[in-house]
Amino acid sequence: MASSSTFFLLLGILMVIRVCGSANDHPSTSIAVDISEPRQIPPTFLGIFFEEINHAGAGGLWAELVSNRGFEAGGRHAPSMINPWGAIGDEEAISIVTEMSSCFKNNPVALRMDILCDPSTCPPGGVGIYNPGYWGMNIEQGNTYKVVFYIKSTGPLDSVVSLVTEDGTQVLSFRRVTADAAKLKDWTKLEIALQARASYNNARFQFTTTQKGTIWLDQVSVMPNNTYKGHGFRNDLMQMLLNLKPRFLRFPGGCYVEGTYLRNAFRWKETVGPWEERPGHFGDVWGYWSDDGLGYLEYLQLAEDLDAEPVWVVNNGISFYDQVDIRLIGPFVQEMLDSVEFARGSPNTTWGSLRAKLGHPKPFNLKYIAVGNEECGFKNYIGNYLKFYKALKKNYPDIKVISNCDATWRPLDHPADLYDFHKYTNISGMLGLTHLFEKMRRDDPHAPKAFVSEYAVTYPEEKMMNGTFGGALAEAAFLLSLEQNSDVVEMVSYAPIFDNLNDRRWNPDAIFFNADKAYGIASYWVQTFFRESSGASLLKVNFPNHTLPNTHLTAISRTNSIDQKDYITVKVVNYNNITVTLKLSVVGVDPNSVRLQSKTVLTCDDLDADNTLDFPTKVVPVSSLIPSEVGKHKVLVVEPFSFSAFNITLV
Ligand SMILES: *[C@@H]1O[C@H](CO)[C@@H](O)[C@H](O)[C@H]1NC(C)=O
Ligand SMILES: *[C@@H]1O[C@H](CO)[C@@H](O)[C@H](O)[C@H]1NC(C)=O
Ligand SMILES: *[C@@H]1O[C@H](CO)[C@@H](O)[C@H](O)[C@H]1NC(C)=O
Ligand SMILES: *[C@@H]1O[C@H](CO)[C@@H](O)[C@H](O)[C@H]1NC(C)=O
Ligand SMILES: *[C@@H]1O[C@H](CO)[C@@H](O)[C@H](O)[C@H]1NC(C)=O
Ligand SMILES: *[C@@H]1O[C@H](CO)[C@@H](O)[C@H](O)[C@H]1NC(C)=O
Ligand SMILES: *[C@@H]1O[C@H](CO)[C@@H](O)[C@H](O)[C@H]1NC(C)=O
After folding, report:
1. Following DSSP, what letter does each residue of 96-111 receive, concatenated?
2. Ligand 4: does its nearest atom lie under 6 Å from the Cβ of 544?
3. Cβ(429) to ligand 3 under 6 A?
4. Residue limits of the Alpha-L-arabinofuranosidase C-terminal domain (predicted)?
C-alpha cells in the first residue's frame, strides 16, 4: 500500500491530466509481474480490416475527387442516369445524353454534349457539365490537381476546366483548354494541372465552353498531387491508419466480397490495369457504385505502405443469395490462384508479369488468404472451401488459409490455419467475451488459431451510432483478454474502420470523415494502446482478480527501437466507478531498479460520451510522465472507468 502522502501526490498529478471523472474509495491489491517466462505475442497481432463500406474507399481513402468518372454508374445502357454529374446551362443552350460510344470496350458509356449556343448567345460562363465529387471536393490552396479526361469533338475546342465553389460562383482554379478540330476528331487524352488559388471544402469540377458543336467526354479524373507517397491514398486518413501501426490489412470485405448476388461481387481482374479501362462495379450489399480506382493492386500497395501483411479475402463462389455448385467451383479456384500469382509470382509468370508491367516488379508479401466471409453455414461452404484449401496448399504451401467457421463453438471438421471470429454485441456481451479464449483447448499445437477479424460494441443501435466511451472500455477489456490469450489468438481487427459521414450505412466505425476532416471514436483510440503489442513479449502477472472485479490487465515487455531499452507496459481496464490502486512488483528484480516512467489514460466520467465532428477529441488518451520520485513507489493508480497503460523501466 502506498503511503498517503504518495497517494495525494499521485492524485495531484492525476487531477492535472484528468479529462473528467472523480475518485471515490480506492481498493488496493498487489500485482507481481514475472519477466522470467515471456511468451511472444504474434507479430501480426493488431491489424486493420478495410471494407469498401460507407464509401470508405471510393470517396474516402482513395483520393480520386470525381465520382462516376466514366459515366458507367447508371448501367451499361443509353440513355442512362449520370449522377452526380449535373448540367450547366438550360436545355435551349446545351443537350446532354449518354451514348455507347466510348473508346474503352470495358466501359462503353460516354457523355455527349450538343452545344446549341455560340459565343454571342451562350451565358457568359459558358455551358457544360459539373461533378461535385463525393459530397463536395476538398480543394486546398497551393495544391495541384491533376485533371485527366478523354475527349472527342466535331470542331475546334475552346473550353475551360475549373474547380469552383458548389454553386459555381467562385473560381478556385481554372485553365483554358484549346485544340484544333483535327486533333480531336478521334478520342484523345488530355492532361491538365490545376493549382488552387484558394481553399474550399465543398467544391466541384467543371467543364464549360461557349463554342457551338458536339463534344464527347469520358473517364474524367481529378487527383490531388499530395496523396500518400503519390500512391493515391488520402493523406489525413492514411496517417490515422499508420498511427495504429497495423501489422496486417484484411481487405476488401466483408460482405463486399460476397455480394448480395454473385454478379455484383468483387472481381479482382476487373480492378487491375489502367484505371480508364476498369469497368467499375455496383457493390450491391452496401448499395453504391465504385469506379474501382482502389483495385486489387492498390490494396496490395496500401498494405505495403502500411508495413502490414495483406490478408486477401477471396470470393469462393458464394453470395447472400447464390452458391456455385462444388462440382463447378474450379474456375473460381483458378481466379484465386491467378490472384496469388499476380501478387507474388516472379515477373516471368503470366500474372506476375502484369504486376511488373504495372510498376511493381517486386512481389508482395501475400501469406494470408481468407476463403469467403461469414459463410460457414452455407450449404456449399465446406465443399468449396476444401477445393480452395487444397489448391492453395499444393501451389503455395506457406500461405495460411482462413476458414469462416468459428472454432470457439466447436472444433473445425476441416483443415485450416486460422478461423474467423466475428462479434457485434452490447457492452455486457463484450465484457462476457473476456473469458472466451482462455477456455480454448491447448493440447493440439497445430489447432487453427483465432483471427478476430471483426468485433465492436454496436448495441443498442441508437446509442452506439457514434460509439461510446463505455463501449470502447468494454472493447479494451476484450482486447486485453486477446493479448493474454494470444497463444490461441493470432490476429485482431476492429470493424469497420472507415465511415464517410455522408453515407452512414454501418455504425459505429473507428474513423469518421467527410471531405476535409477526420476523427477517431473512442474505439479507435483504444486500439492505439495495442500498437506496441504485435511481436512484444507477454509476461505472467500474479493478480488476485477475485478481490477486484471488473478489472482486467496484462503486462508486456518490448525493446524500444529508439533507445534500445527494455520497457514493461502494464495495461489496466477499470470498469468500476471507483479508483483502484495496484502495488507493483517485478519478480526476481531489485525493487530499487523498477521505475514507473509514464502513463497514458483514456477516461471520462460519462460512459455515454462520444466523439463527434464538432467535438472530435472529447474522449482521447492523455499521456504524461511520472516524476521520478513518484515513479519509485510503483503504485499504479487506476482511475474509475478508465483504460490506462503504465510504462515501466528497469534501471
Ligand atoms: C503539389 O503541387 C504544389 C504546387 O505545384 C507543390 O508546391 C507541392 O510541393 C506538390 N506536392 C507534392 C506532394 O508533390
Ligand atoms: C523465372 O525467373 C526465376 C528467377 O527470377 C527463375 O528461377 C525461373 O526459372 C524462371 N521461370 C521461367 C519459367 O522462366
Ligand atoms: C446484451 O446482449 C446479450 C446477448 O445478446 C443479451 O442477452 C442481453 O440481454 C443484452 N443486454 C442488454 C442490456 O441489452
Ligand atoms: C479470475 O481469473 C480467472 C482465470 O483467468 C477466471 O477464471 C475467473 O473467472 C476470474 N474471476 C473474476 C471474478 O473475474
Ligand atoms: C460514478 O459515481 C459518481 C459519484 O457517486 C456519480 O456522480 C456518477 O454518476 C457515477 N458514474 C457512473 C457512470 O455511474
Ligand atoms: C512508453 O515509453 C515509450 C518509449 O519512451 C513510448 O514510445 C510509449 O509511448 C510509452 N507508452 C506509454 C503508455 O506511455
Ligand atoms: C453522432 O455524430 C454525428 C456526426 O459527428 C453528430 O452529428 C451527431 O450529433 C452525433 N450523435 C450523437 C448522439 O452524439
Report:
1. EEEES--S-TTS--EE
2. no
3. yes
4. 453-642
Q: Per-residue pLDDT tens for 395-434? A: 999 999 999 999 999 999 999 999 999 999 999 999 999 9
Mutate to test the pocket of ligand 6, among 245, 603, 636, 647 (most ligand atoms within 8 A of CB): 647
- Check pocket membership of 346 for ligand 2, CB cut-off 6 A: yes
With a 6 A CB cut-off, is 612 part of the ligand 7 pocket? Answer: yes
Ligand in closest contact with the CA of 546 = 4
Long-range contacts of 620-625 (CB under 8 A, 24+ apart): 620/19, 620/520, 620/525, 621/525, 621/528, 621/529, 622/17, 622/19, 623/598, 623/599, 624/13, 624/16, 624/17, 624/598, 624/599, 624/600, 625/597, 625/598
Q: What class, spelled out in words, does domain 4-41+536-650 have in CATH?
A: mainly beta
Distance CA 418, CA 423 (A): 16
User: To 10 degrees, the CA torsion angle through 68, 71, 76, 77?
Assistant: 130
pTM of the complete model: 0.94
Residue nearest to atom 12 of ligand 1 (CA): 226
- Cα of 548 vs centre of ligand 4, distance in Å, is 10
Cβ proximity of 583 and 2 under 8 Å: yes
Structural domain spans, the chain: 4-41+536-650, 48-62+227-528, 86-224
CATH code of 86-224, in short, is 2.60.120.260
| 167-207 pLDDT tens trace | 999 999 999 999 999 999 999 999 999 999 999 999 999 99
Q: Which atom of ligand 7 is nearest to the CA of 614?
A: 5
Closest-approaching ligand to the CA atom of 20 = 5
